[in-house]
Amino acid sequence: MISTTTQTKQPIFKKIIKAILIATFWILIWEAASRLVSRNNELLLLILPSPFTVFKKWTEIAFTAPFIKAELLTLARVFIGFLFGVISGFVLGILTHISKLVYSLLSPILKIIRAVPVVAIIILMYLFFESSTLPILIVCLMVMPLVWQTVHDGLCGTDKKLLEMAYVYNISATKTIFSIKLPYLTPSLITACVNALGLAWKSGVAAEVICLPGVSLGTLLWQGKGNVNFDEVYAVTLTVVVLSIIIEILLKFLCRKYLARNGGVLND
Amino acid sequence: MIELKNVSFSYGELQILKNFNLAVSGGECVQLYGVSGSGKTTVARIILGLENADSGQIVVPQKISAVFQEDRLLENIDVLKNIRLPLDKEKYNFADNLLKEFGLYDVRKKRVSALSGGMKRRVAIIRAIAYGGDALVLDEPFNGLDADNKHIAASIIKREFIEKGKPVLLITHVKEDADLLNAKTVNI
Q1: Among A43, A128, A168, A247, which residue's beta carbon has the most beta carbons within 10 A?
Q2: What's the whole-number mean pLDDT along residues B24-30?
Q3: ipTM given for this complex
């Protein structure tokens, strides 16, 4: 639902300082844990390297051509999967809203996809799909139910009084969906998409680690683990986290712009 | 013509209407008067096809316009889009003229959520008048309007419905509002 509550705005520099302080706190905890673990056995430093070692490793690999290529390909897979997930979830949400028969037929699939662990889906799908396309499919399968459920519930939960108004004024079903129901659901759909993006990254990289699609961040993670290069594993993970945060911030920024123009507020 | 003969209606065990009769002829305005919970809005809902009567006979025109108790506007789109939503393109000019008569033409591009309560009410009335139809149902239509705007709304409703021979059903507690439309009072 579109929320129109007034929010107290924090100055941007205050927000940045707060974020830096929180990050510093957790980096210090990480550093302390690393020192504690390696105090008795230096080999354990391999498993939990210090933040400085990880950052150093990251600067070594982050700007090399193979790493950038891996980043871009993972990004592309996550993005394509996310896009297909949003589109298919949106279409299915509308179809299951329009037809009770379609809802009855497809709702078990929705429940199955939600209940089966991601890893199980990845392993099962690996039998049928190429390793380079499987992460796309997995991301799509993770995003789609979330969007589907949001669209379906949003359309079913449209303000009854507005629907009565549409009925009295003989507004067509198509016009009712596109002019009344969809605008009503937009803010919750946007929130669902932002949440789904985080899920897309996690499941996409997990799928890459399992099916090793040539050049990818997931493959680099696997190789790092295989070569006992845990600082590399941490550096790649750091990259995934940073990319995920940047894209989420970008998506939220665009959504806020859109909602501000259309009279709504993004629920954080 | 709006006609209800021996209409009964209940919400579960609670009987709201029992053998209720009402007739509103073309060119006539009838005020339905009664205490809260007497079933006035239920009568309007039955006429508008939003509720099915348990029994009785209901004769209503096919196309009825309505001003609901609440504004029932889409808050996040502008005034013009709200008014045009149920309209055919041929009626756009008519709607623009109504906006001018109600003094809302300058805010036609403003989002409804940015309007005052009285302005929203006027937008809801304009939408109902612009939609036209062969009858009009008004449920507390002048709530939140000042005296001047009540007069403007009443005179336009008279011009577009009553003087054109269409029946108007008015639900209100306010005698002055009924007088503005020269309404005949029927108790429920």
Answers
A1: A168
A2: 95
A3: 0.94
